[in-house]
Automatic annotation (TrEMBL):
Region Disordered, residue ranges: 499-525
Database matches in PANTHER family: ENHANCED DISEASE RESISTANCE PROTEIN (DUF1336), ENHANCED DISEASE RESISTANCE-RELATED
Name the UniProt record assigns to this protein: START domain-containing protein
Species the sequence originates in: Trapa incisa
Residues annotated as domain START: 208-371
Domain of life per record: Eukaryota
Length: 740
């Protein structure tokens, strides 16, 4: 049976980018089939196939597609409130298949909540973005109309738990949509429908602090060696790189799939895998067996245990981390030799194609660590022995993956999406507080390294939708061509030009974490310049050009490294805080960033940044300080860069800019002369996993963090770095209680 399914957005005829009061705001509509998950009144779990419809701030759920059945009424209906929150729950079993779950709830009333599941992680992210856009619409109406405030108080908020309320159908004059795709049958085959037109993924990756040299090729796959640390005497990093004509979601699903019949077609090493345990939707432990007949004349059976963690970045890139593991459910097996699998990662990144080309492409990289002594022996043997090793078999997985995906076009069609666009609807008001869906795609890396760049980048060309010209996508070439111009902070634009700057004496402020004197110091902080980061230049909206950052606008005056029993909010209000000291009260403005780290015990890493003059209230920083939480969430940006540390941690953290308000819960406290931002890292299961990995190596990590307010409009460019900090090999046992 073929069922209609579609997704669309309704666009206004007028531009919304100028932020003028008369501009028309876009009204978006998203709809498609999802699984509704929950627990019924007698405590039994249920999983129902439902049609979900989001129009503006309204959400409706149907048993049947309303486009095919115009008379059908929604079984649930409600509005998205400004306190609406969404959390990615990751991968879980749904109807004997793997799906990706999303939880949403009201931050002020967690009784109003619900869960849905989607076919792929990419689809789940699109639904999360759709809910976020509906939340922005609710905030917009609330802040621009007193009537809207009264209306929101009487409208029923969406709630997918408990009994279904009796509802009236609010939608009138359903617009004619294009019949596309398949219906619930396709979702049951792990497919769903959402438009890709609204969701522009950021192409681009962190510039790696490596010096890669291609030493071998096989079946179109290049194998690289990192020669940057060849003299360090540690493990050698090796990677295999290939371009696959498929979407990132397709490749990601193939790699994670444990079905033996499918895995036998591409994986010569780990075709026999068994799931031992699964945790929080983003982590599992696997057991595998291997008979290396093709590698040695000795028929010695081997087995292994390893863990997998996976993350999806805001730019759509997937990272899968694989580490050797031990599990009590799988002790050493009789007749098998237990081997330790090399630590490795998969990275799957989309390649933007020219307009008009319907083919998806992605760059797939598998990286692993090999012992230096063994690697040198294999190299000296001209790779003849290397081709008989387990690491070589692992690297060949990339080549097998490419051939398998391209030989099975049905894999691509399972999650292909057809786009339709319907009639425009208008809504007046400004859009300056919200993220611009037509924003130019970032083309360059956000953190730099002094090492030479990777040679793996594709030379594909891409059409620029905004300027209508072909732009070279080779990041390394583009960077060298523009000579890495530097961004200069215009302090007069952000700070009050008429005020006399005060002198800030760092010795008057002392946090619990010491300030380092030189690079050899440990368990300390310092404040480096911003030249290691790429930020948006003056012409970014026209040509996507980025420039090197300069010195930060705000001065870092102290850092607290705290251990707490419960999550710590409102650090600035504590009587022992730097903000409440006499010198702190005299400062024109202080920005406090409180990174709340979930662990046992919990930690808070608190940064205090000060200005020497009052903030210009009409500037971007002034709008951020006194703006709405929705505006702050859409603009608060952090760029991490691990200067020194274990390579696996670098791959997990990456060096791409992240809008923190889109990934984790951020709470804002604006009082007196300060703004405090409490970043709840534990609010995201993905962030919890990444920070857990970082904490395991924190004593050997040197990391730089750059804090920015993202510029989205011409008048706000060029960007500048708001604050910087370098953390040098922190010791968890040195954290103190606040006030000690």
């Amino acid at each position: 049976m073929e069922v209609e399914a579609a997704s669309s957005r309704h666009m206004s005829d007028a531009s919304v980018a100028d932020g003028s009061p008369d501009a028309k705001r876009e009204l978006f509509e998203f709809f498609g089939w999802v699984f509704h998950l929950g627990v019924n009144t007698i405590g039994h779990e249920f999983c129902h196939l439902r049609f979900l419809y989001i129009r503006g701030k309204y959400v409706e759920m149907y048993k049947r597609d309303p486009h095919e059945n115009p008379g059908v009424k929604p079984i649930r209906r409600g509005v998205i409130s400004p306190s609406f929150m969404v959390e990615d729950l990751g991968r879980r079993k749904v109807n004997d298949g793997d799906a990706y779950a999303i939880r949403f709830y009201n931050r002020q009333d967690e009784r109003k909540k619900g869960e849905i599941a989607c076919a792929t992680a990419g689809e789940a992210q699109k639904w999360m973005d759709a809910f976020d856009h509906a939340k922005q619409q609710a905030v917009y109406e609330l802040s621009n109309s007193g009537n809207a405030r009264d209306k929101l108080n009487v409208e029923i908020e969406i709630n997918l738990e408990g009994h279904r309320p009796r509802v009236r159908r609010y939608a009138q004059e359903l617009k004619k949509l294009i019949r596309i795709g398949q219906g619930p049958e396709t979702l049951l085959r792990l497919s769903s429908y959402l438009s890709d037109r609204y969701f522009h993924s950021n192409v681009g990756d962190a510039i790696e602090a490596n010096n890669w040299k291609c030493f071998h090729t096989i079946n179109g796959t290049r194998i690289f060696e990192d020669i940057a640390d060849s003299k360090a005497g540690k493990g050698v990093l090796v990677k295999a790189v290939v371009v696959i004509e498929a979407s990132v979601d397709t490749v990601f699903e193939v790699i994670l799939n444990l079905e033996r019949s499918r895995r036998y077609e591409w994986d010569t090493f780990s075709g026999d895998l068994e799931l031992i345990d699964s945790y929080d939707g983003h982590y599992d432990v696997l057991y595998g067996t291997f008979e290396p007949k093709c590698l040695t004349r000795w028929n010695s059976r081997k087995d292994f245990v390893f863990s997998r963690q996976w993350f999806r970045a805001q730019d759509g890139t997937y990272t899968i981390i694989q580490l050797p593991a031990v599990h009590k459910k799988r002790p050493v097996r009789s007749g098998y030799k237990r081997i330790t699998v090399n630590p490795s990662t998969w990275e799957i990144r989309a390649i933007n194609m020219p307009m008009g080309m319907g083919t998806d492409k992605c760059l797939v990289t598998q990286m692993m660590e090999i012992q230096s002594a063994k690697w040198c022996k294999w190299k000296n043997g001209r790779c003849s022995k290397f081709e008989k090793t387990v690491p070589y078999a692992l690297l060949c997985q990339v080549s097998g993956l490419k051939e398998y995906v391209e030989a099975n076009p049905a894999l691509k069609s399972e999650i292909s999406v057809i786009i339709s666009q319907a009639k425009a609807s208008d809504m007046s008001g400004s859009n300056s507080d919200y993220e611009d869906s037509n924003e130019a795609v970032d083309k360059f890396y956000d953190a730099l390294s002094a090492d030479s760049y990777s040679s793996e980048e594709s030379d594909d060309e891409e059409n620029d939708e905004k300027v209508g010209k072909v732009r070279l996508k080779n990041d390394s070439w583009a960077m060298s061509g523009m000579n890495l111009k530097k961004s200069v902070v215009d302090a007069h634009r952000e700070l009050d030009p008429h005020a006399t700057p005060i002198s800030i004496n760092p010795s008057h402020f002392r946090g619990s974490l010491a300030k380092g004197q030189d690079d050899s110091d440990t368990n300390c902080w310092s404040s480096p310049g911003g030249s290691g980061f790429m930020i948006r230049g003056k012409d970014y909206l026209r040509d996507n050009s980025k420039v090197k950052g300069s010195d930060p606008l705000l001065q870092l005056i102290g850092v607290d490294w705290l251990k707490v029993e419960e999550k710590l909010d409102g650090v600035a209000l504590h009587p022992k805080s730097l903000v409440q000291s006499e010198p702190g009260k005299k400062l024109p403005f202080i920005l406090i960033v409180n990174l709340q780290i979930p662990a046992k015990p919990n930690y808070s890493l608190v940064f205090y940044y000060a200005s020497d003059r009052p903030v210009n209230k009409t500037s971007l920083l002034g709008k951020f300080i006194d703006g709405t939480d929705a505006f702050r969430d859409a603009r608060f940006k952090l760029i991490p860069s691990i200067i020194e540390g274990y390579w696996m941690v670098k791959r997990a953290v990456r060096t791409k800019a992240c809008l923190l308000g889109k990934s984790v819960t951020c709470n804002y406290l604006r009082q007196d002369n300060f703004l405090e931002i409490d970043v709840d890292i534990g609010s995201s299961s993905v962030a919890r996993r990444v920070i857990g990995l970082v904490l395991g190596y924190v004593t050997s990590i040197v990391v730089d963090l750059a804090i920015l307010v993202e510029a989205k409009e011409e008048a706000e460019l060029p960007e500048y770095i708001l604050g910087m900090v370098r953390l040098n090999r922190l010791r968890p046992d040195s954290a103190v209680q606040l006030g000690d």
